[in-house]
Amino acid sequence: MTGRSVRNVLEAVLSGDLGSMTLLESFTHAQLAETPNCAHIVLTRDTVVTVLKRLRANLISPAEVQAWASFVKRGYIVGRSTGPVRPVDIEYQRGYETAISESISRLDEIGDVVDGVLREGEIDDFLAALALGE
Predict the structure, then answer these.
(1) Domains of the chain: which residue ranges?
(2) pLDDT tens digits, one per residue of 19-38
(3) What global pTM score does this model have?
(4) Torsion-angle region of residue 117: left (phi > 0), alpha (psi -120 to 50) or beta?
């Protein structure tokens, strides 16, 4: 395996390390869902800002961002399990819940047939909303 604990990989992903998504995908859904101390995993405003800025600068691909956003939105990797799924509980930083949720929901749509491409200025709009909070 990776030598890194599920918890450490989750923390890396939630800190904006999109490269850790590959490691996260190496764990089974059961391993993710049963990770000890999963309570209090928080996606921060700073992390979302960092991901948005890296996307705007073409340092990460839209596909990487979409996979990351899908996981942090749902708490599980889509299509990995059959049957019921118990998601990892990912909280959004207090005071920024709406701005984070709207950004993540839109990033999760990247690549969709409808609305799959970010429009010009959309990243800047999200950054402005994240600067203000709720």
Answers:
(1) 6-132
(2) 999 998 888 877 877 766 55
(3) 0.88
(4) beta
**pLDDT score, position 60:** 94
Dihedral of CA atoms 68, 74, 78, 82 in degrees, nearest 10, equals: 150
Three-class SS string for the chain? CCCCCHHHHHHHHHCCCCCHHHHHHCCCHHHHHCCCCCCCEEECHHHHHHHHHHHHCCCCCHHHHHHHHHHHHHCCCCCCCCCCCCCCCEEECCCCHHHHHHHHHHHCCCCCCCCCCCCCCHHHHHHHHHHHCC
